[in-house]
Amino acid sequence: MRSAAVHQGLTRDTARQCLEQRTVLVVQDTTSLNLTGCHVLPELGPIGSGNLAQGVLLHSTLALTEQGAMLGVLGLQTWARPAGNAPGPEAKESGKWLHGIDQARQVVWETAWAAGATAPPRLVHLMDREGDVYEVLQWVEEVGDSAIIRCVQNRRVEDPLRLAHAAVRAQPVLGRVTIPVPRSHGKPARTATVRCGR
User: Fold this and answer.
1) Are the beta carbons of 143 and 105 closer than 8 angstroms?
2) What angle do CA 59, 81, 38 make, to 5 degrees?
3) Which of 11, 117, 170, 174 has the greatest count of CB atoms below 10 A from its CB?
4) What pLDDT sits at residue 131?
């Protein structure tokens, strides 16, 4: 009960800060908390490749300004994967993205309503390629928000080119940004050029 109250206080404080923005970037991602060797918590499940480590998964939904300044937490989800083939509460983990959207929208809209705001800020949901799920795309459109999701599926689109990857490549480039990419997993540091389109 106490953790729910802390969570509610954090998200409401973040939502109040969101009301000062016209647009809020809602960033979701999942990380694993490795608690291998912590034998007092029976709720742990397998994490990582090979399922040798034990822990829980934490999916966070954070609010940022358009300039990238952190506003705070809009939602947190935790769960443990079931051991072996046992069914668990999160049988389909892709639901975390939908729940993250709903958590963010609910706390921002409730806070805006309580504050007497005429309209809440525009929410733009940001997700990595794991969030490229049809149900997520459909839900973002249904609720009237926007999203930037790293593409993994070459989906059919309403475009003469018929597939998403070709349709995006055919768009005019509006700008280029060069960013440093640090050394990682035995690969040397490099620079990457990101092209921005419509």
Assistant:
1) yes
2) 90
3) 11
4) 93
Task: Identify the segments of the chain with pLDDT beneath 50.
Answer: 1, 87, 89-90
Which domains does the chain carry? 2-123 (3.90.350.10), 154-198 (no CATH)
pLDDT at 153: 87
Residue 150 amino acid letter: R
> What is the pLDDT, as a whole number, of residue 19?
96
Q: What is the pLDDT of residue 198?
A: 64
Q: Residue 126 is encoded by which pair of tokens?
A: 């940001």
Distance between CA atoms of residues 157 and 66, nearest Å: 28
Closest CA to 15 of 77, 73, 101: 73
Cα–Cα distance for residue pair 85/2, rounded to 1 Å: 33
